[in-house]
TrEMBL record:
Name recorded for this polypeptide: YkyA family protein
Pfam families with a match to the protein in the record: YkyA
Signal keyword on record: yes
Organism of this sequence: Halobacillus amylolyticus
Keywords: Coiled coil, Signal
Signal peptide: 1-25
Coiled-coil features, chain-numbered ranges: 50-152
Superkingdom of origin: Bacteria
Amino acid sequence: MRFRRIVSLLLATAFILSACSNQSAQEKIYNHLEKAVSLEDGFRKQQEPLMELEEKEENLYNQIIDLSMEEFDKIKELSKEAASIVKEREEKLKLEKESIDAAKEEFDKIKPLIEDLTEEQSEAKKLANQLVETMENRYGAYQDLYKAYQNALDLDLELYEMLQQKDLTQEELQKQVESINASYNKVIEANKQFNTYTNEYNELKKQFYDASGLNVTYEDSAESEAKESNDQSEETK
């Protein structure tokens, strides 16, 4: 099994308003939203290394299953190397989660500011409330993704520990592989849900800025990621 995670990212604007005491409510909201984007840089930075580690581990796994029991010492050596890569993936996942949690904490600062929007800004207020709801959904979807991915990593680690046992049976191996495949199916579904909410959030944020009269421009790197967000691939081990 191999899973290639493609995630949709939060869109960033090309500039951030400078902080000052007489900022309007929408300008304060803008700054918190864009700071939340910047706090997800750690999340972004983990994506490529994670995929590289997945590919490296996959290559090792393929080497392992091509070996016979007469080459058990080599199987054991490669299994230990693959297990170390799983632990590296786990560290990347932790860094990713820390970034998401920090961004969510920053985002939550807009909640009391929404009530400061004027009656003339009713459309902006409605969109801001929708942003809050969508971000809550997105954050919940990420928690599901994190738990599913962590569970898959635990099962991967168990697999490589099993492969270091000379008395491992084909039946035990097959059962473990089936559990891993099922776990990555859950990761894929959680990832799709996370991407859906991210894309929805990005669109709502644009609408909020338009309704608030904020003249902003967008970086297009995240948009290119969003177009690919559903291009998941999965192969069985």
